[in-house]
């Protein structure tokens, strides 16, 4: 049984949940429910323990308690954009919870955990999943980061192994030089100072030699220490830069499914702050650790060479310090991973709120967002307080043990001097070495903290690097050129998690044919477009373009033939020209202008203060929805794609602007395959065939007039939109249009 897992850190019922747990009862999984029994938004909570299923209902503000017993079953389903979790016994349904599909991944984990608990209680073999998700939002990972994960950084350090070897040699020399000074105190005490107190004259030559040795050792130590620190700092920064670049490049290569389960703020935190933490560790703390180890080893050799008995007395605190380090290491390791998680929550709030500040202000929700940030910040404070409680006790305890060890050495040394076993100079040198020995020992104990921080950060970085894309490139890719745009889908099935989206879909689209795709929201239109773009791979069946299975072609080679215009046009911060040329950075100004003319964007661009060199704000702020959409259309046109995909490209514009865009599209569909999900059904009239989808299946197929005559699914959609009776039908209708070969087509001004 795993350790007790906390409920969602920012959920207001966290404390109440823990207060309801019995002695020895552990939380196994939790699920945030964002709707109440009436379908209104509210913060509910379902928690599975090893003994009960606990649920908080936001509408009534009360808790329900269902003891685990044979015959209980949880069923997860979804319909109409909502998910439902139902609890049954052998006779009836006991409870039903509803929530948005954002909670579906956590609900799947909850159901799996429930089934495992029931198997465990029934004495059956428990099914163990081969791979858990790396981010379990509602509980702590059962496998805290191991310090050994830092060894995986050698992959990034290998290119700099020559500099690292030189840095190690400098470190060895600097450490050796620092050990010269205590050794020279013995002749200074025994041959200069003590004889002088006894009436002997001071030998100037000897004093000059000894002081010169001290000065030389100090200069050598300084020079080598400076060179070592500078060199290794440069190397560590380059390792961290390579780590950031590699992680970001790997992240870009992952499929959309990976990003669907991640928060933007969390990924930003990993690539930014975690790599910075690793850089600091490599440039400062790892260097200090190696120096400390060298110092301890060389000091120990010198101490035993001076007096073995006194050296053994020096080692008295070591077993106790080692035991303390072992005791707090796991607590620190787990604590720092908790800190990483709660800090990710803070970053997520910022990443949600700042880009959406217009919506926040429009709905006057500033206080709500401030409260979210405050809750996440307070949770971060509490986690840090718990960790600091452990660390604040550990550090002074190590200092106390080293002071006690120093007292032991003083006592043994005085006893040895009294029995004339050693000289005062020997004891003085010994104490000087011991000061450095215990100082390095204390420093090493402090490095435990930063090492665990770096290990936690490295684990989160390697969680990204270890993730394999669900849309991989083939080992031996097939060339893909001279695309005509013929698309064939045979037995296509697609599941997203536990949901079946596309079911047994068969469709052949001939070059030159216009095909419209129609269906309510959730019928699978956008998913089918995503499969054609190969943002996802089909679960079963296959999609072929020009007779070539998409899985046999490199993803980048295939997507070079696709132009995509999204329902929500996304523009990058930069100039108008840079945004249009995003898919073809080496495009000439004439080509950019030609694409803008074809998208009916040239006129409004010229009215901007700096024309094509006008800056647009982040995500295109400062331009209207129609203007952003026409720039995104020009961006897709510039690469002259074989397949043009318009995902409801006219839904964000007014009727007059749509007419302008539609006039441009009438010219653009000639000579290329165009796939469009349109907002208004009136755009379907020019399609050769219409494919009507419902719940991922084709239910009707034929031209517009024939489908109207059938008075089936398509007719009902058409009538609802024409009469403005069914507003939902008006919002969610769609079109996919397909037309012929692009190879003869070029964009002209």
UniProtKB/TrEMBL annotation:
<feature type="transmembrane region" description="Helical">
    <location>
        <begin position="164"/>
        <end position="185"/>
    </location>
</feature>
<dbReference type="InterPro" id="IPR003593">
    <property type="entry name" value="AAA+_ATPase"/>
</dbReference>
<feature type="transmembrane region" description="Helical">
    <location>
        <begin position="422"/>
        <end position="439"/>
    </location>
</feature>
<dbReference type="Pfam" id="PF00664">
    <property type="entry name" value="ABC_membrane"/>
</dbReference>
<feature type="transmembrane region" description="Helical">
    <location>
        <begin position="205"/>
        <end position="227"/>
    </location>
</feature>
<keyword id="KW-1133">Transmembrane helix</keyword>
<feature type="transmembrane region" description="Helical">
    <location>
        <begin position="393"/>
        <end position="416"/>
    </location>
</feature>
<dbReference type="InterPro" id="IPR011527">
    <property type="entry name" value="ABC1_TM_dom"/>
</dbReference>
<keyword id="KW-1003">Cell membrane</keyword>
<keyword id="KW-0812">Transmembrane</keyword>
<keyword id="KW-0067">ATP-binding</keyword>
<dbReference type="InterPro" id="IPR003439">
    <property type="entry name" value="ABC_transporter-like_ATP-bd"/>
</dbReference>
<dbReference type="GO" id="GO:0005524">
    <property type="term" value="F:ATP binding"/>
</dbReference>
<keyword id="KW-0472">Membrane</keyword>
<feature type="transmembrane region" description="Helical">
    <location>
        <begin position="310"/>
        <end position="328"/>
    </location>
</feature>
<dbReference type="InterPro" id="IPR027417">
    <property type="entry name" value="P-loop_NTPase"/>
</dbReference>
<dbReference type="InterPro" id="IPR017871">
    <property type="entry name" value="ABC_transporter-like_CS"/>
</dbReference>
<feature type="compositionally biased region" description="Acidic residues">
    <location>
        <begin position="129"/>
        <end position="138"/>
    </location>
</feature>
<dbReference type="InterPro" id="IPR039421">
    <property type="entry name" value="Type_1_exporter"/>
</dbReference>
<protein>
    <submittedName>
        <fullName>ABC transporter ATP-binding protein</fullName>
    </submittedName>
</protein>
<feature type="region of interest" description="Disordered">
    <location>
        <begin position="121"/>
        <end position="140"/>
    </location>
</feature>
<feature type="domain" description="ABC transmembrane type-1">
    <location>
        <begin position="165"/>
        <end position="453"/>
    </location>
</feature>
<keyword id="KW-0547">Nucleotide-binding</keyword>
<dbReference type="InterPro" id="IPR036640">
    <property type="entry name" value="ABC1_TM_sf"/>
</dbReference>
<dbReference type="Pfam" id="PF00005">
    <property type="entry name" value="ABC_tran"/>
</dbReference>
<feature type="domain" description="ABC transporter">
    <location>
        <begin position="487"/>
        <end position="720"/>
    </location>
</feature>
<feature type="transmembrane region" description="Helical">
    <location>
        <begin position="278"/>
        <end position="304"/>
    </location>
</feature>
